[in-house]
Structures are given as C-alpha cells and as structure tokens.
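Appendix B. Chain record.
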Amino acid sequence: MKTLNLIIIIILLLFSASLVAQKENKMIRKGNNVYSEGDFKDAEVNYRKALETKNNSHKAEFNLGDALYEQKNYEESAQAFKDYAEKKSDKNLKSKAYHNLGNSLLKEKKFDESIKAYKNALRNNPDDLDTKYNLEYAKQKLIQQQQQQQNKDNKDNKENKDKNKDQKQDQNKKKDQDKEKKENNNQQNKDQKNKDEKKEQAQDQQKGDKKEQPKTKKISKKDAERMLQALKDNEKETLKNINLKKAKAAGKGKSEKDW
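Structure tokens predicted for this chain:
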C-alpha cells in the first residue's frame, strides 16, 4: 500500500513537472517567435512569464537579457547577463553570458567594465573570436575616452586659467579705476579747498578795505562857512603873532649910546 502511494506521488510530481515544463517551453517559444519578428517588448513579457512558471529557466533568463538589450535597456540587460553568468557552471554558457554582458556595458560606454566582461568570457572560452574582436574594440574605445577626458581636462584647465586671468585683469582694472577716481576726488577736494581759501581771503580783503576806508561825513553849508571863517581868524591871529615877534626881534637888535 505504501509502495503504491509512493508511486502515485512520483507520477503526480512528474506530471506536474511535465505541465510546468510544457508551459515554460510554450512561453519561451512564443517569446522566440515575437522576438524573431522584432517585437522585443512582447518577447520580454513572454520570457518573464516563463520565469514565473520556472524561476531558474536557463533559456528564459538568457533570452530575457537579449530582449532587454534589443530594446536598448542596456542597464537591465547587463544585470540579467551578469546574474545568469554567476549562477551557471557550464563554461560555454558562462562565456556567452559574459560576452553579452560586455556588449551591454559597451553600449553604456562603460569600456573598462566591458573589457573585464570580455576577459571573463575568454577565460571560459579562449577560442571565441567574436569576444577577442570585441575586447580589442573596447580597449580602443577606452583609449579614446581617456584621451577625450584628458583633452577636456586640459581645456577646462585652460578655460579656468583664462577665467582667472580675466578676473585678475578686471580686479587690477577696477583697482586702477578706484585709484584714479580717488586721485580725482582728492584733486577736486584740493581745488575746492584752494578756491574756498581764495574766496575767504578775498572776503577778508574786502572787509579790511572797508575798515581802512573812513566814512565821509557830509556837513551842512552853514557849518562849512563857520569852519572857513574859523580858519581865516586863525590865519589872521597867526600873522599877527608873527609880526609881533618880528617887531620884538628888531627892537632887541638896536644899540643906543648914552651921550
């Protein structure tokens, strides 16, 4: 009885596995058909369905990477091929997966990483001519990339130097302008000061002239006549005094004898 039950279980498992395999293969075939027709998106959908049926389906995993690559989804295709290569032990399958990984990385312009992928492919299949060719191509692209980066760095350095030079020239120019402006302001202040001093001196001179010049008082006609008469009287008195002195002087000079 136990043997019969075990046989039944085995049969059911085999039948179930057969159904899974049939569904898996059906999805893969459908995916391959639309892939050949160029419908890579639909192919991706079918390969993913096959993986849902059997998550370790070798064909579905590898073909999914191809479908993603054809849709230019290089980042996801690179991850798919990398995962596939790390899980497989068969050297031929690993070589193919690393080769396609290198192609995906090459499209992303990750030349250094693509070179490593091609080298891993050749470790598993040293005679693969396509991988050898792609490896040399990736090396050349890496050299070009490095040269372009070097040229860009040199250009950036030159631009930075020119920019710094221009900035320095602008700073020096501004300093000269500020200096010239300051000198002009100083000269203007000096000229204004001189002008103010001259103006002040002129004002002081005018004030001095006004002080030195006596004010002429106007007198009346009556006062003028009185002053004139006083002068005449003084003159007569002066003449009288002079004549008197002369007479006295003459008297002193006369000698008389006592007869």
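Further analysis of this model is presented in Appendix C.
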